[in-house]
Please model this.
Amino acid sequence: MKQHFLDDQNYESELITILKENNVKSILLVCGHSIEQLDLNQLLSDLPATLDIKITRFMDFEPNPRYESTVAGVHAFQENDCDFIIAVGGGSALDVAKCIKLFHTMDATTNYLEQEIIPNDTKLLAIPTTAGTGSESTKYSIIYVNGEKQTVNEQSSLPDYVLLHPVVLNSLSDYQKKATMMDTLCHAIESYWSVKSSVVSKKYAGIAISSAIQNAEAYLLNLEDGNRVMLDAANIAGQAINYTQTTAAHAMCYKITTLYGASHGHAAMLCLTKIWSYMLNHMDLCNDPRGSEYLFTTFQEIASFMGCDSSEQAIDKLEQMMEDYDLKNPQIQSMDEFYKLVKSVNVDRLQNHPVKLEEVDLIRIYNKIFGL
Ligand SMILES: [Fe+2]
Model:
């Protein structure tokens, strides 16, 4: 499915055209409070008066959204006879909106996650307010069921329309900006080394790696061009993982977020640098049918996109960025917590990771991550 990207200079008139073309009568707006700082908020608030379009705001979801929140969103969609969805926010808002789009035509008497998904025609416009998740360009939505992460994987959840507007990044905190940039880098690097990578996915991933690295400073200074390029990099990295999915760094990071509250991208990069080092010492366990020499070259190429001569230099560079940005390792409180982390990763689901990992490897890598 081809997505339509709105022009960020003329998005207001384009949005109005889209709403008219789709004969929209009632919009479900899935958003967090960050929308209150955006000009777009006024435009949407005015829609009942300007175009006689009803707006229902759905904000009843949390970071790391629960399945129950998506069900509440489906109720809001149905009770208000909605016929269009706009999602404004970070990955949580976008993922909830993607699930509402999928679930609202399904049987409400059975758990949506246990049903076959039948694509529907409801249109979704995604407006990411962080440069990180790339959720606006992936078929994946992450929700939590009884505290456990679950991925909804459905191509038809891909938003029909996307607005990448650099102004939305101005209101983020420094920590959010740093952590979401790390998420972008992890998506791009993991996609590049994924066993499922292809010429096309590597092209996207390579562009995202170099763009993110080269524009880190301008983005963190909140310069408009820096923000624009980082939003693009996050989106392109999202397109890359739409082909390949993420790998072990993402699998290992989710529990760090739920146990210690470290932001997703922060946790993912803590894992990625240690996993990369570990793989360099275990190239004999290469899991990619293209072979260990291919994998070595792949690592070299990633380093080169980062402006480095070797994998070791690239890892040092990422670790230096983490130190400079004050993105520290959380402190483990008990062995019980340590084993919760290890048990949170299903090694059977790491088939696209380029080096074979068993539970014993996870233990060694978590030891490195937490400096034990
Ligand atoms: Fe991520």
Notes: Residues 4-168 form a domain with the Rossmann fold fold (CATH 3.40.50.1970).
